[in-house]
Amino acid sequence: MDRQDQSAGDGERLPAETLSPLARRVDELLALYRYELTPAIDAINAAVSGYGGLFDPETTADEIRAAIDDLFEGDPPLSQQDAPGTAVSHAVLYVDGSAHSNGPAGAGAVIQADGTRIAGLGRPVGSRTNNNVAEYAALHLGLRSLTARCAPDSVEVRIDSMTVINHIWGDSESAVQATPYSTAITDLLSRLPAHEWTHLADSDPNPADARATVGADIAALGPG
Q1: Of 77 and 124, which is predicted with more confidence?
Q2: What does the H/E/C string look like for the chain?
């Protein structure tokens, strides 16, 4: 199996949400970069000929696809070569979802381990997806990346969605329609030796917010 097929078909696929072919192709590349937004977007921008970039209105869908194809053909990024499973005492996971008014939604997560930021993650969720689903997707993204990258003794999840908090940590009989996400999230939480959650107020800083917004911008790409 080549790296393109592995990236597109690995266990990091989100539960099915609709994305344009172009947005899904970008997401496949993000998977190769372990959803580290900055190096992935920098790589795409560098691979686009001329002065364009991923979000430049002058960059065509064909140019973006060609740039991504070139990156898949090149050497794997350093982030893919990092050895996972580093032991840490305490990890903090910030998560956030974002949805534009017309539906494109993205997920963001930032991981800190023993006070040091080790990951800033983002990805598109869906082209016609609401903010609640994006919040679940963000928690799924953060937990999956956290459990793959390090082995903390304890984790604090910082999140601003009371809908997710009440569903995941509260009433198990909640009628919120996010079963594919909540099942995966519950499984990931069960792998942690200890965890707690903190509700972030709107006024509290959340570094995952900007990454979720970029993920929503990627979800808006298309059709491609």
Answers
A1: 124
A2: CCHHHHHHHCCCCCCCCCCCHHHHHHHHHHHHCCCEHHHHHHHHHHHCCCCCCCCCCCCCHHHHHHHHHHHHHCCCCHHHHCCCCEEEEEEEEEEEEEECCCCCEEEEEEEEECCEEEEEEEEEEECCCCHHHHHHHHHHHHHHHHHHHEEEEEEEEEECCHHHHHHHHHCCCCCCCCHHHHHHHHHHHHCCCCEEEEECCCCCCCCHHHHHHHHHHHHCCCCC
